[in-house]
């Protein structure tokens, strides 16, 4: 009887594995754009960037067809839970609050958060009193939003934006005094542009969160395991480093 039960369980496990592999022939990935250099549109309208290239490489390793779905950041977790797509591959930092709602993969990159402002600014983010009366821009719902709210809301006016692109535009237009944003994004969108000399990084960067991971619904643990295995492979076979070097002069591998 015991042998029969074991045989039945083994058969069920094998059947389940076959079904899971078949179920994930297509995986829909949500991404919020623009968020240069991680995800943005090329002049011809196609999606490009570090995470687009990495996501496509991971999907190839998983032997699944991945379809990118553009979704605004403030609705990206609700969209996942509503099954508009199967996973989020869009610079989502792992933290305790989000982990209550979604299942995360192992982190695949980690970058510091930076502060940017006009080149004449005397702001030191380590000293909140230097931000007194200033307008501080963040992208709504990000870990930078949480950090700025917790540290500066008593002295500064925290202004929240739907996209990182919008808050950069307002900094360049003089409608913000400080922007709190992922450091590589700030470098590429604020400093390495035509009027970049008019701005600078302010003070020391800070490291927030546990790194960035793929997020899926809690019921889809098999999908997260597929991502974990594929990410581990591309991190060690040279694929990750090749993509990293295309967009950064330093490693962001986690």
Question: How would you characterize this protein structure?
Answer:
- Helix content is 39%, strand content 18%.
- Helix 2 (50-62) runs antiparallel to helix 9 (239-247).
- The strands form three sheets. A five-stranded mixed sheet has the order 4-1-5-12-6.
- It has nine helices and twelve strands.
Short summary of the structure?
With 254 residues, the protein is an alpha/beta fold.
Our count of helices gives 9
Q: How many beta-strand segments?
A: 12
N-to-C terminal Cα separation, in Å?
48 Å
Mean pLDDT: 90
Structural class: alpha/beta
> SSE order in H/E notation?
HEEEHEHEHEEEHEHEHEEHH
Helical amount = 25-40%
Principal-axes geometry comes out as: globular
Major β-sheet annotation:
5 strands, mixed
Strand content: 15-25%
The strand order across the widest sheet is: 4-1-5-12-6
Radius of gyration: 21 Å
